[in-house]
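Any chance you'd type out a single protein's sequence alongside its tokenized fold?
>
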Amino acid sequence: MIYSLLVGVVTFGVALVAGRPLIALFHRWGVLKGVRVDGPESHLTKMGTPTMGGILIIGSVVMVTVVANLVGRLSMLLPLGVMVGVGLIGVTDDLRTLKGGFGVGLSPRLKMAGLLSVGLAVALVLHYFFQARSIYIPSLGKLDIGLWYLPVATLAVVGTANAVNLTDGLDTLAGGTVAVAFAAYGIIAFLQEQAYVVTFSFTVVGATLGFLWYNSHPAQLFMGDTGSLALGATLATVALMTGHWLLLPVVGTVFVAEALSDILQVGYFKLSGGNRILRMAPLHHHFELVGWSEPQVTMRFWLVGMMAAMVGVALALW
């Protein structure tokens, strides 16, 4: 655990050092965020902020993992590969949202196809190479679910990637809640004596905290789909590697709430002929419009995420 925590600190330092020159480079290249015209008016000031900051997180994690957590630990190629692969999907999607637009990027259908492909690959590797086929149920232990593991694991990766993506709408919101979730799974992996997973989890925590240095309100850098999709898919992969993926909706309560708010809002809008449940979806925008400031929303969501992570770890011990 000591080694894992120190690796996380080193990764934080790597991200911190790399952040400022990356921001300058993005300004030079015009990698600047456009803003939804149908979003809150207060977000118009965010237009022109560098995006694709997920590259900072992914690059830091890759660099440190290759040096400190890969030799003799080739199983780490799985979460590392997921992070890089889904990050590339995010990059192509982010190209469509840049200020001025490049006129390129993945269509929603192609993006979903890419995520499903990665999710299925994760499920197949875990099932056939790691012999993963069970679920841990608190107080009951393992339950073998056989081939049902494949669709469930695939949906876990895709669903978590999209849920974290929806959460990424305010400064530090997605980054902070993701860091807490990875820390929780790092502790769960420590309880299972999966030292490599522990180190990887805290490597991601360190890289994400380094990114948050520049994402603090008012943000100098956004993570974009490059970061949010990659972090969500990787979080699900780590959860699957611990076997405690049933706890993912608990540890990721904030992500579940954000995703459900969006699904319910769209569904109710269509069924009711134009009525809404919330003032705006996802959920964080609703709270903005009822009068919470952006820092209030993010801090309160962080607090909920921390309490949810504590419950998740407690259930893993049960």
Q: What stands out?
A: The mean pLDDT is 93. Strands lie at 134-137, 141-144.
